[in-house]
Amino acid sequence: MSDALAVLPQYLLPKKALTAFAGVIAGARGGKATTALIRWFIGKYKVNMAEAANPDPAAYPTFNEFFTRALKPGARPLANVPFVCPVDGAISQFGAIDKDQIFQAKGHRYSSTALVGGDAQLAAQFDNGTFATIYLSPRDYHRIHMPCDGELRRMIYVPGDLFSVNPTTARGVPGLFARNERVVCVFDSPHGEFVLTLVGATVVGSMATTWHGVVNPPRMPQVTEWRYDAGKVVLKQGEEMGRFLLGSTVVLLFRKDALHFNPDWAPAKPVQLGESMGI
Questions:
Q1: What are the Cα distances from residue 145, in Å, to 45, 117, 210?
Q2: What pLDDT, in 10s, does the model give residues 68-80?
Q3: pTM value surpassing 0.70
């Protein structure tokens, strides 16, 4: 079956209604039913609870609290490098931005302007820069950390679709990461300005940041922006900056010459927080 045919049902499903329903279930305090759901999820997706700060499935009153569980201290030691990977997951694509075009999958590209919600001036700063797209599977740790020291300048909520973000969908839906709902975070850093984008997906109940809390819901109908004064939100490398309540994808944009990828890496190689993004 072709990828286009495989994703056809996603065009027909009521994705926003399904996502809202999943959010209700994930936030419910269901007692034994919640614990049973967590145990089923651990078994189905082979979640490594030995890494969790609290490995007992019954200790989590809601599925969301399990899904955004903390890790044991020292589970992800930081490498002594300029950049670390901000999430557990697999780098599905990375490399150079071709002027303003970002490679999604075979046959598909999207523009940096579309990704950041239509701000051409912001996107132009990353022309011919570098990008990385990191997919978080259901089994992964779903907190997001800083790849380097950063000072937050802007946060932009961009409404959009809620397609799945798995590799099949990335191959089958044109412009996927620039058409799904997303939260674009713009940071200043010692390496220049960079963008860290949280991309929503089917049944991703919400996305949250440490300085704002839950960004969605509510799902706003228009692009909405927050600006931050210098020094208001300053985060160190490896510090938590946000989380997904049910999983998704992160897209990073860096300016030209800010970062060079390790030539031994290949797309879709799993990486963990604490591994260098390449120097």
A1: 23, 22, 10
A2: 999 999 888 888 8
A3: yes
